[in-house]
Specification:
Rossmann fold, elongated, 11 strands, about 270 residues, 2 domains, alpha/beta, about 35% helix, six-stranded parallel beta sheet
């Protein structure tokens, strides 16, 4: 269950004071949009910790108890708070209850980076678990029946596609593509379909394929034989994952790949 799902569920039982970072200036522990929901007996989320969060907790509980206050408070992150960030945060306080849950489910939902994962094997399953709590909208694709586990997270869409590369034209724009099917033949077909889409639309910022440098050298030659130019092949990342992480266990590989995907969030969109 995601933090937002936990909040909506908890509001059915008790009201809360929602504290949101409305805006920031300079260095701050969290960006605009970060939130913390304070209940009488606990809290969900974080504003970045430290004294500013402690003060926000106290102020939220004061308001839960019936005290008044301005809807937005300015917090300077300086010596008076025992912090040295040097920035400023503007925090919005709002009393919320069960009736607000549907609205908050939309307002607080983080923008999700579209990810297309081809392959339901061991690494694919580990990666789906790692990506589930991250701000990703995962489309998980395989040509085989009965591959996907029963306990898939709600933000994961499972899709059966045969042939598997037939799913490529329908991927969301700006999808990060990960290719790790059960066969090299499928990997090659999916990769070729992604490169054709790139040639036509240029809207796949990351195309990654699991494998060794030897595998990529072989695929590179075969793709050149299919008519792909060197500059097109430079768009492919293989091997995938953050360099320097040792270990071939599926969970280790998944962490390195997820980290690399998060790095791509900073890439500028074409156009």
């Amino acid at each position: 269950m995601t933090l937002l799902h936990q909040l909506c569920a908890a509001l059915q039982a008790a009201p809360a004071c929602l504290v949101r970072v409305e805006r920031t200036q300079g260095s701050a522990p969290r960006d605009a949009g970060a939130w913390m929901a304070v209940f009488a007996d606990g809290a969900l989320g974080t504003l970045g910790g430290g004294h500013v969060e402690w003060q926000a907790l106290a102020e939220a509980r004061r308001r839960l108890a019936g005290a008044d206050g301005a809807p937005v408070l300015r917090q300077a992150l300086g010596p008076s708070l025992g912090q040295c960030c040097g920035g400023v945060m503007w925090l919005r306080f709002e009393l919320v209850g069960a009736q607000d849950a549907p609205r908050l489910a939309q307002e607080l939902a983080p923008p999700r980076m579209p990810v297309a994962l081809f392959g339901g094997g061991h690494v694919g399953q580990a990666l789906a678990r790692v990506l589930a709590p991250l701000p990703c909208a995962l489309t998980w694709i395989d040509s085989r029946d009965g591959v996907f586990p029963a306990d898939v997270a709600p933000q994961v869409t499972c899709e059966h596609s045969d042939p598997v590369q037939g799913a490529v034209p329908g991927l969301a724009a700006q999808s990060r593509v990960l290719i790790m099917s059960f066969s090299h033949a499928e990997d090659l077909d999916v990769l070729a379909a992604c490169l054709l889409r790139q040639r036509a639309q240029g809207d796949l910022p990351y195309i990654g394929m699991i494998g060794s440098r030897t595998k990529w050298a072989t695929f590179r030659r075969r793709l050149q034989e299919r008519g792909f130019a060197p500059h097109e092949l430079e768009q492919v990342t293989c091997p995938i994952g953050v360099p320097g992480i040792a270990g071939k266990e599926p969970e280790v590989i998944a962490v390195g790949v997820a980290a690399q995907l998060l790095q791509t969030r900073a890439l500028p969109h074409p156009g």
